[in-house]
Amino acid sequence: MKRVLVWCVRSAKVERDEDLIERINRGQAEAFERLYHRHRDWVYRLAWRFTGNQQDALDVAQETFVYLLKKFPGFRLTASITTFLYPVVKHLSLNMRRKRPAGSLDEAALAEIPAPDPSESSRAELAAAMASLSSEQREVVLMRFLDGMSLDEIAASLDIPLGTAKSRLHNALRKLRGDARTRAYFLE
Amino acid sequence: MTERREHPDDEMGLSVSPSFAEDLGAIFGPQGQVPEGIDRAVAEAARRHLCRQPRRLSWVRWAVAAATTAAAVIVWTVYVPAFRGPLPRAARIAAEMKRADIDRNGRVDIIDAFRLARHIESASPTKRKWDINGDGLVNRDDVDKVALAAVRLNKGV
Amino acid sequence: MMKRWMIVSLTGVCMATLLTATQVARAVRPTEPKVRFAPVHIYLDSGDKPLAAYQFELKATTGRIKIVGVEGGEHAAFKEAPYYDPAALAKDRIIIAAFNTGRDLPRGRTHIATVHLQILGDAEPEYELDLTVAADADGRELPAKLSLERGDTK
Predict the structure, then answer these.
(1) Residue of B nearest to C52 (CA)
(2) Dihedral of the CA atoms C71, C75, C77, C82 (nearest 10)?
(3) Beta strands A186-187 and C126-135, pairing class
(4) ipTM surpassing 0.85
(5) To the nearest whole angstrom, how far is the Cα of A52 from the nearest Cα of chain B?
(6) Contact C85 B18 (CB under 8 A)
(7) Is A96 within a domain?
(8) Same domain, yes or no, for A97 and A132?
(9) Which of B1, B3, B6, B12 would best serve as a mutation to test chain A binding (most A beta carbons within 10 A)?
(10) Fewest CB atoms within 10 A around its CB: which of A141, A165, B16, C76?
(11) Is the CB of A66 less than 8 angstroms away from the CB of B53?
């Protein structure tokens, strides 16, 4: 493994999304690359959830960023970038899935999930419990805990009232807590 | 590497174990990563699209910005020290350490820098007092400043 | 004949004097201290918790050292050079810290940093390691164990 000796203080820079967007609007391609790398894995993970297929997910991820790129110059971020990108990923994934046999988006993703190792019983039970939720409830749980989105961001991304987002999440978590298979995930 | 988004505080009155998110990630996360070919394709598309755009340089904007900066520098270097006087070095260090104590636990350590970095990355509203280096922005430069305060051998005590 | 004998004798005396002087000079020249370089690899064991941030202090309690460089560890999360005070270079005490806000974090015993030292003299230095803080991905302190391994001296 190659190691590099450092003799001076590190000064790495991480800018906010708004700062990067400002620089992209000024034509700085390097700023777009930074934004891309910051959100690439999240977009890919989301696309995989919607398409249930690695190749389609990669295509959607690339198309999402090309779509974002074409918004510049003149793009203004009025919410978080993930709130902006969420419906884009969903829309592109839906288009991709129209080319495939019918089936709901996340049910297909669930079907693609490799069977958990029987020794990992808690994960297998969690997967089964998640499958028992409605697709809307499952989506908000994943947006909250996997994507780390706030309730405001979830509501804005799904274009639903905040109260609806809260209600879906609350009902989903209450159901999981009442489920013997997943009760252990909840702290007293 | 894509940075992890900050996990929000629970508002549902139901405290969830950290392993919940981990196991969800293992179940619902994709197998494999985005290949470098896609990274290169996006980078190339960005270069082609953005470098093509005409850059409108407003000389008036630049002139105003330059004049404002010059005025600020003059005021800061000439007038502010005249009112305040230069602080002794120990007092300067102590003041900096106080600002760098982001989590207000009475100690400046790497957790302060970590918390500030997480907050900036979550794009949440920032507080003026987190502008550690006084440049009018709260960004990674301030995070570095806090981290360097944490590892400083002479903490002014 | 006499003249030749005198020249030979004089040459012999000169050479003997020169030889003696050299040996005396060598005997009185102060021995230069032995200088060598050695890395010290620092490991942190966070158990089964993911490590997101750490800070520790390293100092020499015996022996003479100068800190000449600092390097990151092996895991991607801590591969970049950590933070340290440049004033520590050429001293015998240093505070080192790093953090990573990403998801790919190490668990268990992890090589977090390497400190490169210049060791003066023959005595093998002894070090004191003091863990200031280790934290998980939520910024919560977690119990961890710090240790070091000496690398090959050069």
Answers:
(1) B114
(2) -10
(3) unpaired
(4) no
(5) 9
(6) no
(7) yes
(8) no
(9) B12
(10) C76
(11) no
CATH of C35-150, picked from 2.30.30.40, 3.40.47.10, 2.60.40.680, 3.30.70.1290, is 2.60.40.680
Residue B132 identity: I
Judged by CB atoms closer than 8 Å, whether chains meet at C97 and B153 is answered as no
Chain B residue with the nearest C-alpha to that of C134: B111
Phi and psi at residue C135, in whole multiples of 5°? -140, 155
| Count of domains for chain A | 2
* Domain ranges, ordered by start, for chain C: 1-30, 35-150
A161-168 long-range contacts (CB < 8 A, ≥24 apart) are A165/A140, A166/B11, A166/B12, A168/A136, A168/A137, A168/A140
Chains in contact with C, where contact requires at least 3 CB pairs less than 8 Å apart: A, B
Q: Which of A72, A105, A138 is the last residue of a domain?
A: A105
Q: How far apart are CA B9 and CA C11, in angstroms?
A: 95
CB atoms within 10 A of CB A112: 16
Can you give the CATH number for the domain in which A62 is found?
A: 1.10.1740.10
Q: Which domain range does residue A32 map to?
A: 15-105
Q: Which residues of C touch A (CB under 8 A)?
A: 69-72, 74, 80-84, 86, 89, 114, 116
The residue among C61, C64, C62, C71 whose CA lies nearest residue C41 is C71
Cβ-defined contact of B4 to C103 (cutoff 8 Å): yes
CATH number for the domain including A161?
1.10.10.10
What is the number of CB-based contacts under 8 A between chain A and chain C? 24
- Is-above-0.90 flag for pTM? no
